[in-house]
């Protein structure tokens, strides 16, 4: 990852972990022990810093200019590894391997920073004082957008290397590999940077999941409006009549198993139709053979699924537990109000 991007991710991670410590310390007794076990692997280290609630903090943002960008692009690509001769098929495979390395970086970013930031934002929405939560959520929203920008940059390197690999495979003569790499990566970055906020983030699944997790806490049992409504309109955005192609709407997450009709337990999600079921219920319905397909039991779904199509869904399991915890707390609050009256 380019140097300035790595510093930016580290800075965000430090701030996110500080927020997570402060938030979790407020309500540590409210979090289920098993949920803590699910979250713990995602926090390889804990900072000793403490956050004063309501106190503004500046997130360090490294300065950079176009010269830094060019140096960063060059830093991640070793021209000497390919020599001055036209690239051959072995060089093409090397390019393909470099693209795979970038893909692994993207995967790790998704499994660490994206997931952690979404979890912290959910905790802030649930536990922080109302006066301070909106300001803090706005700051976390900015972090999420920057993470998406970083993901876009990583994907630009990956796509460029794959494109160059295909050009080598098809027999195109390439001698100016570094120049092509720099120009193509920078072209993709420039195209992204000229977009408006809505054009950058409204289609992002990560941003939609981030906003969804907050909305579920603040507006239980309500479907989230289109993601575009959380993003400011800027010059260059389409009119309302033309925005259908970029709007991504939230959905009301059903935490009940379509078989048992009660909250999901050890949820398993089908890779075919994306419907989720309690593990024991779906295994009993599908039978012992992992490859015997049966009609999906979700209402209105005609897809055929088998045990081999199912994958554990830890994120959904976390959501179910959080939903149940919030519901129990609301019920306790209502009981307390009735006693006072």
TrEMBL record:
CDD domains: SPL-RING_NSE2. Residues 1-69 are annotated as: Disordered. Keywords: Metal-binding, Nucleus, Transferase, Ubl conjugation pathway, Zinc, Zinc-finger. The keyword Iron does not apply. Residues 29-38 have a biased composition (Acidic residues). Pathway: Protein modification; protein sumoylation. Gene3D superfamilies: Zinc/RING finger domain, C3HC4 (zinc finger). One of its GO terms (cellular component) is nucleus. This is SP-RING-type domain-containing protein. It comes from Lactarius akahatsu.
């Amino acid at each position: 990852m380019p140097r300035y991007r790595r510093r930016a991710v580290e800075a965000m991670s430090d701030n996110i972990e500080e927020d997570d410590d402060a938030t979790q310390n407020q309500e540590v007794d409210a979090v289920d022990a098993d949920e803590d076990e699910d979250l713990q692997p995602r926090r390889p280290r804990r900072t000793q810093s403490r956050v004063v609630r309501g106190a503004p903090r500046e997130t360090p943002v490294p300065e950079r200019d176009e010269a830094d960008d060019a140096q960063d692009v060059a830093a991640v690509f070793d021209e000497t590894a390919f020599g001055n001769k036209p690239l051959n098929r072995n060089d093409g495979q090397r390019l393909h391997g470099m693209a795979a390395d970038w893909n692994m970086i993207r995967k790790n970013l998704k499994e660490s920073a994206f997931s952690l930031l979404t979890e912290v934002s959910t905790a802030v929405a649930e536990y922080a004082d109302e006066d301070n939560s909106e300001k803090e959520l706005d700051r976390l929203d900015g972090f999420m957008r920057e993470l998406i920008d970083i993901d876009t940059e990583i994907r630009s390197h990956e796509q460029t290397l794959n494109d160059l690999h295909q050009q080598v495979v098809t027999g195109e003569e390439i001698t100016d590999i570094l120049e092509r790499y720099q120009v193509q990566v920078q072209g993709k970055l420039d195209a992204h940077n000229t977009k408006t906020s809505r054009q950058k983030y409204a289609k992002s699944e990560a941003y939609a999941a981030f906003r969804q997790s907050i909305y579920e806490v603040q507006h239980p049992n309500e479907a989230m409006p289109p993601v575009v409504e959380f993003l400011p309109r800027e010059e260059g955005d389409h009119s309302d009549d033309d925005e259908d192609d970029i709007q991504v709407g939230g959905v009301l997450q059903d935490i009940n198993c379509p078989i048992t009709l009660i909250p999901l337990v050890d949820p398993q999600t089908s890779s075919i139709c994306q419907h989720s079921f309690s593990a024991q219920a779906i295994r009993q319905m599908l039978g012992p053979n992992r490859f015997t397909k049966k009609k999906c039991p979700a209402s209105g779904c005609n897809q055929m699924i088998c045990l081999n199509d199912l994958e554990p869904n830890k994120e959904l399991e976390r959501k179910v537990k959080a939903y149940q915890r919030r519901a129990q707390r609301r019920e306790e609050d209502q009981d307390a109000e009735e006693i006072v009256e």
